[in-house]
Amino acid sequence: MVFMKRKEKSQMTLHELGEILNKMYSTAAWGEKTAMAHLFGIIYAGEINKGGYSAADVAREAGLYNTVNTEVSAGIKLSKYVTPI
């Protein structure tokens, strides 16, 4: 599974976020793809918001717009209430 955050304080690009989402989603086990889209939104909500991107922007960059746009958005909203362990 691909989880990466930059150690330096520079902003992640839309392309980097799209690549990570694509890898997380496409390598997820059957029945886990939606959960991976939510988890991506939770983990990377700060980077997405800091860059001024939307869930639709990231999903489109990942080539998954019609599939995960809503799920990433849900993960971003959930990020206020949960922390991955």
TL;DR?
The chain is mostly helical and 85 residues long. It is 61% helix and 0% strand.
Describe the fold and architecture:
With about 80 residues, the protein is mainly α. It is built from 4 helices and no strands. It has one domain (about 15-80).
Distance between the termini: 14 Å
The number of helices is 4
Shape: globular
Structural class: mainly alpha
Strand content: under 5%
Count of beta strands: 0
**Percent range for helical residues?**
55-70%
Output mean pLDDT. 91
Poorly predicted runs: none
Cα-based radius of gyration, to the nearest Å: 11 Å
The major β-sheet equals: none
Secondary-structure element order, as H and E? HHHH
Number of self-contained structural domains = 1
Describe the secondary structure blueprint for this structure.
Layout: H1 14-26, H2 33-50, H3 55-61, H4 65-78
Record keyword descriptors for this entry.
85 residues; 4 helices; globular; mainly alpha
